[in-house]
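INTERNAL AUDIT FORM
Audit reference: QA-55
Scope: verify that the stored structure record matches its stored sequence.
Auditor: D.O.
Record contents follow.
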Amino acid sequence: MQGPTSQFYFSQGLRLHYVDWGHDGAPSLLLIHGGRDHCRNWDWVAERLRDRFHVVAPDLRGHGDSAWANGGGYGEINYVYDIAQLVQQKRMAPVTILAHSLGGSIALLYAGLFPETVKKVVAIEGLGPSPDMLKRIREDSIGTRIRKWIEMKREAAGKLPRRYATLDAAVARMQEENKHLSPEQAWHLTLHGANQNEDGTWSWKFDNAVRLGGGPAGLPPEEQREIWEQITAPVLLIRGTESWASDPAKDGRIRHFRNARLVNIEGAGHWSHHDRFGVFMDTVEKFLAE
């Protein structure tokens, strides 16, 4: 595989990293990873599509080789701003976006806020917590939820990043997190997702603060759905049948999109672009070719 080039851009004073797979003049394709992931998780997808698109894949703030946000500024709107800056600075519009999990949520918000810049969106489980999960969360008052978040954030601040004695040990942890991964996939994802410490151990690149996001006082679900309704581009929602994510056709969330369809991929978990790569790519390529 002939890999991409590493580049950087600035957003809100942060030096943010992205990889560029080349092919200037081709239609723009933006690949946005999920939480605690990194841009090189898209390598197989990018390699498959680079002959038809100018592929760019960023590391979100606090992830991969991008800078960490002082004060833990990891609310979704901060991520959306970063993506808006990348699209504008690199003149990517009209852009097609393929995104996963947290990245999918960011992509859908961006597409609703700047619909004139987006051609198509593929979101892999990017709708966030299901209505049932949100109902359980809201059994606590907003004050209680914020207090719990502060307590968890204070506790997390005292924890050091986990260290693995060898890269193989980190690979084993990667496979433990997603049992669908092949050994080759797990090695590749770990190699690009971890740094070696001075003592020879290995730690994940992401900022531990990203685990708690921007807190419970962020954009309410109702307002997110209001933004989804402003998306004018065709949307493909993808879900793995073995994932924790609920089916948006059954729980009603798909009705907040003007032009969306859902594909459930059998035998895939949360990372369908890894778990059933062939089926996933066939589905995505048909959508992009329409």
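Auditor finding: record pair retrieved intact. Residues 149 and 215 are 6 Å apart (CA to CA).
Action required: none
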